[in-house]
Amino acid sequence: MVRARLYAALLIAVPAWALLPLQHQIESERRQLQYGGSPVTREIRDQIGQGLAIALLAGFRGVAADFIWIRGHDFWEKRQWFKQAECIENTAKLQPRSTFFWDSGAWHMAWNIAYAERIGTNDSTVAQALTRERYWHQRGRAFLERGVQNIPNRFDLYFKLGWLHEQKLRRDCGGYPACEKAEYAKAAELFDKASEYPNAPVYIARDVARCLEKSGDLRAAYDYWCNKIWRADRRIRNNLDRAIVEREIRRLEDRLDIPTSSRLFPKVTAK
Amino acid sequence: MTERVGFSLARVWTIAGNTFTESVRQKVFNILLIFALVIIASASFFAEFSLGEDVAAVASYELKSIKDTCFGALSVIGMLIAIVGTAMLLPNELENRTIYTILSKPVRRFEFLLGKYFGTVLLTFVSVLLMSLMFLAVLAFKEVRLSKSAKAEVTAAGSDTEKQKAQELVVKIHDEAYDPDIVKGILLIFVKLCLLAAITLFVSTFSTSMVFNVAVALLVFFAGHLVGIAKEAWQAHTIVTYLLGVIPDLGMFNVADDIILGNVIPWPHVGKVAAYGVVYLSCVVGAAHLIFASREI
Amino acid sequence: MDAIRTEGLTKKYNLGWRKGRFLALERLNLHVREGEVYGLLGPNGSGKSTTLKCILDLVSPTDGAAWIFDVPSTKVESRLHVGFLPENPYFYKYLTGAETLEFYGQLCGIRGAALKKRIDELIDLVGLTTARDRRLSGYSKGMLQRIGLAQALIHDPQLLMLDEPTAGVDPIGSRDIRDLILRLKKMGKTVLLSSHLLAQVQDVCDRIGVLNLGQLILEGDVNQLISDQRRLSFTLEGLPAVARGQIEDAARAAGATVVNVEHPQTTLETLFLDAVRKDERGAGHHD
């Protein structure tokens, strides 16, 4: 019996040791593919509470993160913005490879919370409300920028960050043209990055051209329409795409007054 | 009277089938399974709380939440079924003395043990299959509802680009709901459950109490998830690496989270993890046999 | 060839850390001949079950060895021609009687129509026809014992080993089991049974062995062992009262001592069996 137990122990231990190289290989593949997310630090454990920490250690990271997200939503309903933001931060810490948490988290900060702070009927002045709104815009931007660093292999967050620059940060310029143009240029740059990913939707490239135009560089916008969109096959998939692009190029050709000979779409003259 | 009795797979299947029937007719498993199916079915309602009217955000949250809950239920209930189902096998056989009637027939002890193991593997497989079907049904149900609102956006779209965005969303919802990688996640969960069943079987070859078997198996379950973290912390120490190396790293089997997040899980990686699990569990079953073969009954 | 043979069979159980060992069986040499019914008797804890378990390789002997039809117990082949009924068997309670027999039949490699036929035969033989499709969780003790006998017989073995076959069974059931054992004997089967109910053993066994504290202290032919050659008893009917004195006198005159003169009593068992059988309401209401 003693001998049987010894052999049994060896039969488990020796192959387990023999499997160590395979295990290392699997682990390095996981690291390479960035599975599993960040390690569970003591700080996170303290923040999310013991129950969720156990769920986390048992491999239910996703469920734990969803639960924290819902908790954040409760804080939103109670108008406790900073607590909600902390929950959002924790979800992203638990699942840094989740585009959803970065995207929707930034959206909560820069759209929902910021708007609620602006129209909030507190005893604050308009200036104070605007300052708080800007704070949340900036916080959303900083959050999304961290998201981009964590998920550089997807177009999603570049696109969202561009969108944030165009929609929110541009408005914080208070109508100052140079500032607004700079934000449009930044948005164009980010949309361009997003549009380079093979699975990015075609309309993102059109957003690049649109923002370039709004940043004041009509020529660059026109070149983008012609070279990066019209001549790149993958960006014209159907008749709707073709119609939109043709319409935009014709419009710019008119605005830039490009000579007929060098136009992509010569003017249709009445016969 | 001197005919040879060789190892017989037919006998293994007879015992496996009997073990399966016995388990299925016990209420415990039906209740566990019904519980799991209820959780999975309600995952779709659990996910429904408003995030505003942004269909894209609602869709990605709801699909993520459903998948998280369903994979979680599969993993936890599957674990309970695999561990409890295996833990009671040998103690019940010994207590009811049915083992005497079987081993006094021309049946090898290895055939008996393997039959018992395959019986719970079959039970686990059927449970995982039923839960997976429910999982897919919930996803399909959700897909129909989400794409309905996405399609409504297509018709309501003001500009051409908005229309395209809505169309893209319809496609995205479909792709996320019917992600073929979900199969990889379920497969690895199943291999993990088989491994846990093997460990429980091994423990029960030298114990007589079902409670002890369950407790040790649960301990291994948690240790198996912590071992990855422990290894990172103690990387430099060779001895510690070897000591921890004996504990199966169950964290490796958890690719469900990544599948849900849309990360690419290549088949070769899945194959390696599955191979690790199968080799490890084969050794554990072998070790269980070594102890069981010399056990006094 | 003996159906069962053991040589120097010894079994010591470890009692645990520093508690020493318990000697359950000491140098047992047992020979069960083909075709006989052998009764292994002894008080509780005398080693009867251990002997059976050693013969079936359920526990491995500390010393010595056992053979079934000359095949060593340690080989699976030794169990090809033996059927075993453990003490107080339970079986799988979620299976029906027929399913139970199907399972054991398949274990013995019987399949298809042959198995079906065999199950019908056995269900009929042990009298469980009305209960064949009921789950064993609803069986009484006597019914369990009978389904146990049926499973032991499923592969038509040459040798049957029964551990306390009548323990906890009512007198009718126990009589049925005894009748069954006698029928099996007529069919040429060898039976080894263990019991501490001596009266019943006396009825069916050809030979007995008595185990005490792990040793075989008595063995032999039942009739020879229990018949008292020095004494003789008559049982007479219709004897007039006066004739009794004459007979006693004649006996004394011949030099014999009259030890006991009494009215013979029926056994309580016979009384019970007769009473129950006469009760018409009980017909077809076994167990």
Residue-averaged pLDDT of chain B: 88
Rg of chain B (CA only):
23 Å
Q: Identify the overall geometry of chain A.
A: flat
Q: Strand-residue fraction of chain B?
A: under 5%
Net shape of chain B:
elongated
Give your account of this protein's structure.
The complex is a heterotrimer of chains A (271), B (297) and C (287). Chain A is mainly α. Chain A is built from 13 helices and no strands. Chain A starts with a helix and ends in a 15-residue tail after the last helix. The mean pLDDT of chain A is 85. In chain B, α1 (9-24) packs across α6. In chain B, 79% of the residues lie in helices and 0% in strands. The model of chain B has no long low-confidence stretch (mean pLDDT 88). Chain B has twelve helices and no strands. Chain C has 287 residues and is α/β, with parallel strands linked by helices. Chain C is 34% helix and 23% strand. Chain C contains nine helices and ten strands. Chain C has helices spanning 48-55, 97-107, 112-125, 141-153, 171-186, 198-204, 222-226, 241-253, 268-278; strands at residues 2-14, 21-33, 37-41, 63-68, 71-72, 82-85, 159-163, 190-195, 207-212, 215-221. A six-stranded mixed sheet of chain C has the order 6-7-8-3-9-10, sandwiched between helices. In chain C, β1 and β2 (21-33) form a beta hairpin. The longest helix of chain C is centred in the middle third of the chain and has 16 residues, at 171-186. Residues 283-287 of chain C have low confidence and may be disordered. Chains A and B meet through α1, α2, α5, α7 and α13 of A and α3, α7, α9, α10 and α11 of B.
